[in-house]
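Chapter summary example.
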Amino acid sequence: MTQSTLTKPETATAYDPYEIDTSSLESMTFAEDATSASGQPEPQYKLLIDENVVEKISSLAAQKVEGIIDMKGNVLSMIQEGLGGNDRKKGVDADVVDESNAKVELSIILEYGKSATDVFDQLKNVIAKDVKDMTGLNVIEMTVNVVDVMDEEEFNQKRGNGNDDSHDGSGAAGN
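The structure predicted for these 175 residues follows.
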């Protein structure tokens, strides 16, 4: 019988626990579950913002801008208002493009005598800031449709808030 002896290979290096074997990284896909050093799966966190949230924030932000008499709603918002309700997203349509970007479209009724370009500039600033501050989303596109222009008196008449008796001076119609 022959006896063999084991010798240490000359190319052996000290073990470095922080060294990364890059040859295995090339074949790794990021869809695989990440695991921690303890072998437990790493938690994955996602914040998803619904388009309705962006619409509501945009609508409330638009109400801060002087020169907008109202937002132009659809049939559903007219029915809600007719029943005494209030559509907080009226006149706004939003699209969350991805996890960090959104598009907003508004339909406004401009107050007569106000500059549409000034109102537009204010809307861009206010809505982009509020959406970013509250959701982290960047408004990458904003379209503002000026669908009508009215003075306050015309607006009140269309809403049914105008009192015709006060204009003719009689005031006796309600008595």
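To summarize the output: The helical segments are 22-25, 51-62, 75-82, 116-135, 152-159, 164-168.
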